[in-house]
Every structure is written in C-alpha cells, then in structure tokens.
Amino acid sequence: MTQADTATEPAAGRAPTARPAARPRRRRPGRKHAELALFLGPALVVYSMFVMLPIGLAFYYANYRWSGLGPLTNYVGLDNYRRALQDPVFLGSVRHNAIIIGLSLTLQLPIALGLAVLLNARLRGRRLLRLVVFAPFVLSEVITGVIWLLILQPDGLADRTFQAVGLGGLVQLWLADRSIVLSTMFVVVTWKYIGFAIILFLAGLQGIPRELAEAAEVDGASKLRVFRHITVPLLGPTIRVWAFLSIIGSLQLFDLIWIMTLGGPANASSMMATYMVDRGFRRYQFGYGSAVAVILFLISFGISLAYQRLVLRRDIQGALTRMAG
Amino acid sequence: MTALTRRWRAAALLAGLVLVLAACGGGSETPTADPGVDPNQPVTLTWWHNATADPGKSYYQSVATAYQQAHPNVTIKVQPLQNEQFSTKIPVALQSDSPPDIFQQWGGGQLADQVQAGKVQDLTEAVKPWIGSVGPAASNWQVDGKQYGVPYTFGIVGFWYNKALFQKAGITTPPATWEDLLSAVQKLKSAGVAAPIAIGSKDKWPDAFYWDYLALRLCSQEVMQQSASDYNFDDPCWTKAGDMVGQLIDAQPFQKGFLATPAQQGAGSSAGLLANGKAAMELQGHWNPGVMESLTPDKKAPDGLGWFPFPSVSGGAGKPDAALGGGDGFSCSFKAPPACADFLKFLLSVDNQKRFGELNIGLPLAAGAEAGVADPNLKSLLDFRSNASFIQTYLDVAYATSVGQALNDAIAQQFAGQLDPPGVVDAVKSAAASR
Q1: Assigned CATH topology for domain A88-324
Q2: How many Å lie between the alpha carbon of B284 and the closest alpha carbon of chain A?
Q3: Do B257 and A173 touch (CB under 8 A)?
C-alpha cells in the first residue's frame, strides 16, 4: 500500500512542489498509463470479481424464483421486490434497523462523548480505564453474543445482580419478551461498539490545541461553555465520521442478533440482514433472498451517498475533489 | 545386470504375454453369451456420506471394504463430508457431469426437488425384493410412489421425562391421551414443578414438533401424504391442530422465558433443563439422551429418564400409533451404475445394520437389527417405531424447504402469541403458493 502511495504521488503532480528539482523527470504519457495499469490492475480485478460481480449477479438472480437447484427458468421480473416490500416481517426488519440507528445516534453519542472527555482528563489509572472501555470492541461478535446469552438467561447474572441490589422488580425476560428484546439488543450493541466511538473521540480530543480552551478560560468562559463552543465544534469532523460508521454498522447488524435471538421471538428483533439470510439460505429462496440483498444494498448505498453529500461534504471536500482530479 | 537375469526377464515377459492373450481369448467369448451387462466389468462407485468422525467414519469404510472383497470388480471411493456442506455441494454436484454415485439423502421436499430436476435414480425395481425389511419409514424416500432413496436410520420424536418428578406429582402412568397430558401438566404445577414441559422455542423446530404431531393425530394418513405433494391445507384438521396447540400454550406448561430458550446449547437450554431436573418432560428426538449427556455437571446422561410416545387424540382421523420422526438415507444419482443399488442392499443387510446399532449413533431400520440397541428407553422408542402404522417425516423436511421453514416460522409465531391457528395455515398456504 505504502509503495503504491509513494509511487503514484509524483503522478498526481504534487511531487514537484515537495521535492523541487531534485529529480527532474520527464515522463512519457505511456508510462503513466502503464504505471496505473500495474498498480490498479490487480486490485481492480479482485474488486470486480469479488465485489462488483456478486452485486451484479444479485441483481440478476433477484428476477427469478430459484431454489438453487436446476437452471434459472422461472422469470418473475420485479415480483420478488414486490413481495418483500409487502411482507410485514421485512418492513418490521427495516423499522428495527431504523430504531437501532436512531438509538445509536441519540444515546451512544452523548455517552461516548462524556466518557471520552472524562478519559481525556488527567486522572489515576487512565490507561487502565481506556483499556477496559475499549476491550469489548476487540471481542468477536460470536463471543460477545454467547457471553450476553449467559448473562441474560432467566435467573442468570443480570437477574441475580438486579435482585442483589434490591431492584428485583426491574427484572424482565430480557430476550423472550417481544416488547423488550430490541432494547436489550441495543444495550448489547452499545456495550460492544461504544469503545470504538470513545477511542475515535479521544483521538479527536487530542487533536484540539489546549491553547484554545485556555484562552477561553482566561476570557472567563465556564467549563460548559468551553465544551459547548470549542470542544464539540472542533470534534465535529470526528463525530460526523463516527455517525456515518455507526449508521452503516446498524444497517448491517447481523452476528449479534443471529446468535442471541435468531431474529425472534416471532421476528421482534429481526434485522434486514437476518431476514435476508433466513429467506435465502434457510428457505432456499435464492432469488427472493437476492432481491432482499439488493434492497439492503440500495438503502445502504442511498444513505451513504446522501450522508456524504449533505453531512460529510465539508470534511471530505478537499480529499474527494483532489482524488477525482 | 547379468545376462542371466535378462534372460529370466524375457521369459517372464513372454509368460505374461501368453497370459494376456489367453485372457483376451477368454474375454472375447463372453460377449456372445451376454452382450448387455458384464457383471465382472470394473466399476467405480463414489460415495458421499456425512460421518466425518468416528465411529461412523470407520464403520462406513469397513462396509465399503467388505463389499469390495465380495465384489472384486467394484471399487468404492468413500468421501466423508461435513453435514452442512451437503446443502451447498449436492445441488452443484448434481448439475455437473460427475456427480457422486451414492450420496446422503434426507428425503422429503428436497428429494422431490432433485427428482423433479431428473438427478436421482429410480430404485423401485432394484429394491423391491428387500425394501420391506426397512419398514414404513422407507415411504419418506418416495416421490409419487417410486423409491428414490433408502433410509438406514430413523428416529422417532416422543416425550422424554423425569420419572422422579412425575412420581412427586403423583403421575403413575405416562399420559396416554391428550387430556392426560394436560392434567399431568396441572398436577406437576401443583406439585411445585416450575416447568412441567421444557421447550426450545428459540430454534422454532421444537415448537413445530407439537403442531406436526397433532396434525398427524387429527389428519388422516391420506391428507398428510397428499399435503406434501399438492400443498392443499383446506382440510379442517390443520386448523384443529393449531387449536390444540393453543390449548397447550394456554395451560402455560413451559419454562420461564421459553421463547428465547435454545434447544441444545448450555444448561439453560430445554435439554439442559430436563437433564438437570429443572423440567419434567420434553418432546424431542431420539438423540436427546446424547445431547443431555453433555449438559450435566458430571457429563453423564441423567438417571431416571423415561420415554413415552405422543399421546392419542380422541376423534382424530389419524391413528394413535402413527409416528413423527426423521432419518438419514442414501440415493443413487442419475449416472450411477447398477452396483449402486446392490451396495445399498448390502448396507441395509441385517448384519451391517446390527453393527450400526451397536455404535449408538442412530437407530437401525432393518428388521432384526434392533438387537444392537441396548438402552431401555431407546428400546421402547424402537418398539413404538416398529409397531407404527404410518411414519411421517417432520413436516419441515417433508415439504419443500421454503414451505417447511415458513411453517416452522408460523408455528413459532403462534407460540409467541402473534398468530392464531387459521393464520398459521394461511401462512403455509401463501408460502406454498409462492414456492
């Protein structure tokens, strides 16, 4: 990767300013193309074969009713899409994904921001605390799922803990109650991924010059005002990138749900991705599953594009335009 | 190299040539006698089975070796594959030019799909002389009355129960009728058993066992068999089955939070609850003792377990001795030589089946092979199986996969209080319509 970067740098026309006259090189146009082909070619081939082609095939299969055995003969056009968009279970899955996105942005953000500011302050055992907060993110989804299954089973650790501190009345059927399971899953998702947000924000906080806060304090600004008018705005780019990753992650939520609830009870915690795997691979409806995959793809793609256009534009303006040029 | 050895070599070569010529001479005579099939022609059979671990793996290898010794012209290439790989590898292999000759086959809807695509050999004539010894379970490997595969093991679903807890509740004989079962639930509850019945509803298929079995008691054999080919669910018996499932759910016999309980993973699973004395009974397959073994603190199957068949239902069109279960079998692919069917006959011979039964990895089918099974509970299960007038495969296997899974989903929704009995039938109907 680094090799490719340094090699394409001169081609992008930035080298002359950085290293003037040190190595004046005249390039033939053919050489530039050869270089591009050499460095981009392999990656492009792999990307086309394993990313673009499957996406294209999903669009193709989505037009058929197909059990995976025998040739594609039963052409149904857009019928698979129509069925998916009329299926209350699928619409419920879309809603569940939307709820997870909403909760992530409104609840994880303040918690992560608060913890990041706290861990940025000088306090004893800061390194240890940072490690503890980040640890869940390192665990694999499967292990996280199994651990929480054990914690949340009836009369398990969660229930016993509540009872021990006199909050036995709060005990619920965490995973078996249809009205609670989604909230439970959100707590697990938050536990798993908040460490990532905190680390991002910590990195962002360290990039904010200390002088700004000091100057504001000299001018008599309270801690809260410093946070509100200096920390948060300067952390803006980090927050916006985190929100983007969080939205995409929430749209693709699969492993934790599949292990802990299989989308149940009675589809109360199903997500678009679990629905897709269930219909495609468990029911052997590969055409229909492909249609669901295409819908999931279009939703993710649309949200990504819109977010980049509307929210991230300022942050990535330079990078994108220069890359395109 | 001396001249002597060279001369010896020449002599050996000459002798060899003479032999070959003689063999050719002999060979040229046989076709005139039988121009069609030469039974001594070299044949190779490839065999895909799912026993990747011992004792099953070496058992299959020994069967193949024994067959090769008896038939020197046959070579069997044994290829064990992970069970989960079959669902993806078989469709691909069957579409290719070189499918395996013998492959794992669970019957039902998947077999029907393969037959429809013309990928499986019709074995009806070949197995006619001996298929009777396999018993009624063989019908689950038929499509339109023709035999397209042969089962070698078949288990029956029934109630596994804790004898001590039953005694504590004053239940002296296992429930024989549906009413008995419901009153046993009440007795267990009054005796302080928190979970009269354990169920692994997270996995959905344990829910379906109740619905399937009630349908089997309420619908006639004809309706059950027809449903797997014409997907007609208009008979009122289907809704009635759902009504009776509702009756059971209303009696609240299950453990706390059963909707999120897995069937087999961990001590908190339904099998674990039964194994550790936290629940009194569970409707499960013949594999349950083996599952429970791994879920107890001392890794031993719990003592004092009993087995009783699914109770009878008065007024139902199905027979009380009809059984629900599932098993493993083998099919011959469309390109397989006749030796394939002959090998299946050998595999299903009483001796080989008896040896299979002794391995304790499945219940053999051939009449006379029961002697290999020692466990008293499995023996009573086998008794029920051999006396069954009709054996139905789990409906999710018997139906096309998309319909079977939709059925399980719908039943799971009923258990969660989200669907009424007619709703379950409607869900299956619409899944069948968009199959």
Answers
A1: MetI-like fold (1.10.3720)
A2: 20
A3: yes
Contacts of A84 in chain B (CB under 8 A): none
The distance of Cα B355 from the centroid of its chain, to the nearest Å, equals: 18
CB spacing of A154 vs B117 below 8 angstroms: no
Domain boundaries, chain A: 88-324
Q: What ipTM was assigned to the predicted interfaces of this complex? A: 0.80
Residues of A in contact with B86 (CB under 8 A): none
* Nearest-10 crossing angle of helices A79-86, A88-103: 60
Q: Does the beta carbon of B85 lie under 8 angstroms from any beta carbon of chain A?
A: no
CATH of domain B158-321+394-433: 3.40.190.10
Q: How far apart are CA A4 and CA A124, in angstroms?
A: 43
Output the CA torsion sign for A88, A91, A95, A97: positive
Q: How far is A83 from chain B (nearest CA, A)?
A: 9
Smallest CA-to-CA distance from B285 within B363, B228, B218, B357 is with B363
* B91 closest CB neighbour out of A68, A262, A264: A68
Residue range B33-51, pLDDT digits in tens: 333 456 678 899 999 998 8
What pLDDT digit, counting tens, does each position of A39-55 carry? 999 999 999 999 999 99
Please, is A197 exposed, middle or buried when counting C-beta atoms within 10 Å of its C-beta (0-12, 13-18, 19+)? buried
Class of the CATH domain delimited by B43-155+325-392: alpha beta
